[in-house]
Structures are given as C-alpha cells and as structure tokens.
Amino acid sequence: MAIIEVKKLSKNFKVKVKEKGLKNSLKAIIKPKYKIVRAVKNISFEVEKGEMIAFIGPNGAGKSTTIKMLTGILYPNNGSIKVLGIDPQKERKKLAYEIGTVFGQKEQLWTHLTPYDNFKFFGAIYDIPESRVEKKIEELKMLFELDDFINTPVRNLSLGQRIRCEIVASLIHEPKILFLDEPTIGLDPVVKENIRTLIKRMNKEYKTTVFLTSHDVSDIEKLCKRVIIINNGQVVLDDTMENLKYHYLNKKIVDAKMKERVNLDDEDGITILKDKGYNLKIEVDIQKRSVADALKLLNPDNIIDINISNVPLEDIISDIYKKEGKE
Question: Topology of 2-9+44-246 in CATH?
C-alpha cells in the first residue's frame, strides 16, 4: 500500500538575474530582471508503508524542494501529491499530526531546556494527554538510551546525543512517516553507526516509514533497501539498494600514509588516483580485487595511517549518467 504518491510533480522559482558591471547593476535595482528556474521537473514515484527509502542527489538537485512539497511547506506548480491520503497543499495542519521531520543541520529543540522538558513541550503542541506523553517518553528513552542525559540542558549535549533527542522529539506524536534530512552529518563514525542502529530499530519496532536524504553513502547502504536518485530536478534512477550496490557501489577509495615509498602501478582491479611519495590514494574495484588483497600490495607493516571510504555520491551519479547515456 502506497502512503506517498507523487505524480508528475513540478516546481518553478522566479529568480532575480544578477547583472554584471556597475551600470547594469544600478539598472537592475530600478528595474530588476527575472528568470524562471525549474527546480523539480515532472517527477513521479510511490513509497510503500514501512519502507526505508533513500532520496538522494547532489546539492541543487531538487531534493529539499521535493521534501518541502511533500510536507506542505511549498506548493507545486503542477502535478499532485498524496501523503497518507492527504493533500499537503490543502491540509498541511492535518498532515503535520501524521509526520515527523529531523534536519541534521537545523535544531528543533529548545537548547536551554532539557530533552525531557522538550518532549513534554512537543506533546503539548500535538495535544497529547499528559499520561500518554509520559508513557511515550519512557518508551523512547529506553529505545534511544537517553537515561544518562535526559535531564541535561540540550546546549550541554554532544552532537550525537542531540541528534538522538531530535529523533525522539519527532516521534512523540507517533508519526507514520519520518523525514530524515542528513541525520548523521558532522558525527564521528562510531556515533553515526549508533544513530543508524537506532533508526533501524525504530523502523522495526514502530513500522515507521523512513524517507531519508543523505550525502553519506554509508547511511544509504546500511539503512535503505530502495534508492531514488534525483539530479537536475529529474529522477535518474529508482532501484533497489542491491542493484545499486552491484552496478555502482563496487569501488572503494583507499587513502594511505606510508613509512616508505611504494612503487605501485595500475593493474587489474586497482587504479592509482594519487601518488605523492609517502601519500598514496588508490581505487579498488571490489568485483575484481578485494581491499585486503590491495593492502597486501602496500605491505601492512609500511602503513602509518589508512582510510577506506566509498566513492563520493557525486561520482556515482555521474557514472549513472554515463551508463544511461545521459551525458
């Protein structure tokens, strides 16, 4: 059963044209010129109940504009949206009681209050009886392991603790859909993994549908079974995570700092991206060669420091364009 239905959705913005030169700039102040920018272009997709879906793309692709239309913040120029059977444009307030939002770079919590007081405040906003709020706080406190800092002012929490509290605050009213925008941004790897584990547990416990945007490929890989990629306002791929992994996430980047120089050449499954004496950067095609095999060529005893990461999301999207013949 689809709980998000998007059909032929488009959004245009009227943008002021920046003029070059002092004379033209002065003219523009008196009589500004505008152009129409198509941020979202005729996109369609559906999301099923209980799905954890990644909605990703580079900056300026149209992700945020689409989410703002799904949540009723912006109105589309063309097309239709149904979220839980509700038209966000006509019944935004009604929809607000059914969805939750977490923006990794924007705080919704009052920083001078404790998480507990914030949760009580959100309960009041959603007209939830006090006894039910208390029960929900206790339940979420256990699930998200907040016991040690639930009565500490938010301003004194670490970023990882704050994000956990942001997610809990968005769940107080038991939303059916949770929109997560960069939930792990700025977090260290251990805390990121903890947040991902909690999101998966939340999805399993409450069957909450999760609509995730992230630039972190690991977020997408570890949380979602389906991926929609948007670029230049258009959907360029809507596929399973399994297929995306097989076709596009088959490369790893290895950055290594060495004690001694290593004479390494391109060979099957390994591409040298950077070789500056004691600093080496290679790309490993894991369909042809394991990362462990690549490290043997470097000689583990010769490695001072190493970082293994996924190919940047922008490169994956570029690769998709090439394979789809869109470049």
Answer: Rossmann fold (3.40.50)
**211 neighbors 53 (Cβ within 8 angstroms):** yes
CATH node for 250-310: 3.30.70
The residue count for the chain? 327
| Residue ranges of domains in the chain | 2-9+44-246, 250-310
pLDDT digits (tens, 9 = 90+) for 12-63: 998 887 767 666 666 666 777 888 989 999 999 999 999 999 998 888 888 8
DSSP 83: E
**Any idea what the Cα angle at residue 267 is, between residues 263 and 268, rounded to 5°?**
155
Alpha-carbon distance values, 103 to 64, 145, 162, 166, 228 (Å): 11, 20, 12, 9, 19
Q: Kindly report the pTM of this predicted structure.
A: 0.78
Unique residue bearing structure tokens 């977090």: 187
Alpha helix (H) residue ranges in the chain: 22-30, 63-70, 92-96, 115-125, 130-143, 159-171, 189-206, 217-223, 241-248, 291-298, 313-323
